[in-house]
Amino acid sequence: MRLLPSNFETLKRRAKQSIMPLLTPHLLKLRINTYAPYVGAGIKIDHINLDQGLCVVSMGLNALNKNIVGTQFGGSLYSMVDPFYMIMLMHQLGSSYVVWDKSSHIDFVAPGNSKVITRMKIPSAEIITIQELAKDGDAVFREYQADIFDDQQKLIATVIKTIYIRLRKYSKSKDQSSRIDNFDDEG
Asked: What is the radius of gyration, based on Cα positions, of the chain?
């Protein structure tokens, strides 16, 4: 006699989501904008629309994020990009997929002497490509580039993120859960 249903992992994931309710786009934006490391670095989400795969993040230059020579600290520049491709893909692909950051690289092009901004976008055609590549259960690795510009549109840094994506039923990370599944509106 079987005491646990065959889809126990699904039930466990749903229980987690009930205990930790989904964040709406507005609450996600508020949560990230009040996240202590982001507050300290002066990083702010200016716009996020997960349904459209778009996120715009900025960071002013202040005493807490200046490096030893008085320009934007490299770790803060990287932090501007760090979670957003994973978040956007988790939302757009839905709970049938496991999404993880695999690796990243930042190329510092010029010193950041003022406010900086980056615009990250995942086109809908990219989602279709990922779904096609992942349909047989293979791991999919996709690279995304985010350019960071200053307020004069001068390129300051380029971040390359490699993201791992796999259909959940083929992944060893089946327990990964998201608090951002099924957003309906824009924040």
From this structure: 18
Per-residue DSSP letter, 72: B
Q: What is the pTM of this model?
A: 0.81
Residue 127 and residue 11: Cα distance in Å, rounded?
27
Q: Is the dihedral of CA 92, 123, 85, 33 positive or negative?
A: negative
Contacts of 166 (CB under 8 A, 6+ apart): 97, 98, 134, 137, 138, 139, 140, 173
pLDDT (tens digit per residue) in 3-31: 555 566 666 656 655 554 555 677 888 88
| Ranges of residues in the chain whose predicted pLDDT is under 50 | 1, 20, 181-187
Q: Are 44 and 59 in contact (CB under 8 A)?
A: yes
Instruction: Give the distance from CA 66 to its chain's centroid.
Output: 24
- Give Cβ neighbours of residue 109 (< 8 Å, ≥ 6 apart): 155, 156, 157, 158
- Evaluate whether 117 touches 148 at the Cβ level (below 8 Å): yes
